[in-house]
Amino acid sequence: xxxxxxxxxxxxxxxxxxxxxxxxxxxxxxxxxxxxxxxxxxxxxxxxxxxxxxxxxxxxxxxxxxxxxxxxxxxxxxxxxxxxxxxxxxxxxxxxxxxxxxxxxxxxxxxxxxxxxxxxxxxxxxxxxxxxxxxxxxxxxxxxxxxxxxxxxxxxxxxxxxxxxxxxxxxxxxxxxxxxxxxxxxxxxxxxxxxxxxxxxxxxxxxxxxxxxxxxxxxxxxxxxxxxxxxxxxxxxxxxxxxx
Length: 244
Ligand code: FPP
What we know:
Elements: E1 7-11, H1 15-21, H2 26-47, E2 51-58, H3 66-89, E3 92-97, H4 105-117, E4 124-132, H5 134-147, H6 154-160, E5 171-174, E6 193-196, H7 206-218
Parallel strand pairs: 1-2, 1-5, 2-4, 3-4, 5-6
Helix pairs in contact: 1-2, 2-3, 3-4, 5-6
The chain binds farnesyl diphosphate.
């Protein structure tokens, strides 16, 4: 099968549990998570995935212990600086998706630098959802559309969403053996396929990515239509028609 998703989105869950298993502080798990993300960006690029979106820090993550939050902020700034040359060499364009108003000057500056430095890259897009929540996104889009005096409908909201620069994700992966969406891409994942991995994020490797892509290739995406309405034969064509 050669059906590679154009856009993969990932909830990188399990860093804390990975660290606990090794009797390490939680931030050591996040550090390992950055290594896993680097490997994943490169593996996605090699497989022809054009857009990768990752959930790095949610609107709700501020409620974690102060030490973990500040550790994550420091790690974020450090990792961005360190990874930038490789991202440039690989032609990866970075976008930060989320509320920027309450970020520290240091974090905001490193985000702006990374975005402007990679602006000319066109091989792959990496969206980093940071201080992001799906509900926040819908609310900010509605506020923008109404401030422009436009009617609120699907097209106007879609164009004001934080990920309006890319198509909706084809495949959403969540690691860490949890099966929920956790306020990630509530609008954009309406017709995404989901793949839940038992691997903790620091353990997520090329083999597990390939499992997710192979599973995606086996799925029949109907977008609300019946199997009979779809073109060509499909391995799932005999299955009943749900909401699709
Ligand atoms: C969830 O695991 C992970 C996070 C909240 C942070 C993920 C962030 C990174 C991998 C770093 C990103 C860095 C850059 C530069 C993009 P968890 O802590 O909820 O794990 P648990 O469920 O085992 O507790």
